[in-house]
UniProtKB/TrEMBL annotation, chains A, B:
Matches recorded under PANTHER family: ADENINE NUCLEOTIDE ALPHA HYDROLASES-LIKE SUPERFAMILY PROTEIN (PTHR31964), OS05G0357525 PROTEIN (PTHR31964:SF125)
Ranges of residues in domain UspA: 6-154
InterPro entries for the chain: Rossmann-like_a/b/a_fold, Universal_stress_UspA, UspA
Organism: Fraxinus pennsylvanica
Pfam family, one: Usp
SUPFAM superfamilies membership: Adenine nucleotide alpha hydrolases-like
Protein name (Swiss-Prot/TrEMBL): UspA domain-containing protein
Family matches, as Gene3D superfamilies: HUPs
Length: 165, 165
């Protein structure tokens, strides 16, 4: 690895694929003694998605909205903590986190652009079955719309895949 | 870079984007003293594309077909040689080449699978304006269909991009 001091944005979510992408990235892209910055980024669902899921914007009382908000904060924290634990061995690599509400497709591309990252890494689907049904494949969208290089890491299927992992 | 001895497939074509992807990959993914294998892969257009371009399968005489074949061989050689020159400084990295006729979308995914590569790297569009119009975006297809991790490298637009490159 010739380059150092790069900014690498890693989109994490609740799924196994994003943890696999992180592990792969730590093995293959970021050396533990590099001066890279790894930015873990998690998109909490926009409130509109909570409501759109029921098809009725008026269906939830403020109490329910609040507990959904609390739930999504808990999930966010859990995902970010798990990702950070996987990065513990990185000596000189700075690990930062970005957690924001928003459609992950837009949010990830916007963060990538705003922070001028050198590389965006993500799992191949992302953002869970339910959200994916609403939002389409996050990785497809980002591969087409992010302005930086995009690395899409696929979790090999148990029966074969690419062998080594 | 913790890993070594990986197989990295780089899809090259006539365009600037694929040369940029190669340069980016050499800076960011492959260290010059690693034991990685870099496989440069180029898809020559299938004969059907030559003919489909005119909409008439019977339009070309064998002579014309032969000169098209010779032309596509020349282009292939030129592209591969240029890519190899960019890899000259790699000491221990093995550089191999694969040149085959075929729809690049399928050919690249098939080569990736057959050779059990650890990573597929490509430019963000690939395969020239004319072929792209016929075949759709090669990188989109591969990002969705290749079984290995896929790195799509975009050439920054001159007026901005991601700054560093």
């Amino acid at each position: 690895m010739a380059e150092n001091g790069r900014k690498i944005l890693l989109a994490v979510d609740e799924g196994d694929e994003s943890m696999y992408a992180l592990t792969w990235c730590l093995k293959n892209v970021i050396s533990e003694n590099s001066k890279d910055t790894l930015i873990l980024c998690y998109a909490k669902p926009p409130r509109a998605v909570h409501t759109a899921m029921e098809g009725t914007v008026w269906a939830f009382s403020p109490d329910v909205m609040e507990s959904l908000e609390r739930y999504s904060n808990d999930v966010a924290q859990c995902v970010i903590e798990k990702a950070k634990r996987a990065c513990k061995h990185l000596n000189d690599v700075k690990v930062e986190t970005v957690v924001e509400h928003g459609d992950p497709r837009d949010m990830i591309c916007e963060v990538a652009e705003k922070l001028k990252v050198d590389l965006l890494v993500m799992g191949s689907h992302g953002y869970g079955l339910i959200k994916r049904a609403f939002l389409g494949s996050v990785s497809n969208h980002c591969a087409q719309n992010a302005k930086c290089p995009v690395l899409i890491v696929k979790k090999p299927k148990p029966k074969g895949g690419n062998g080594k992992h």
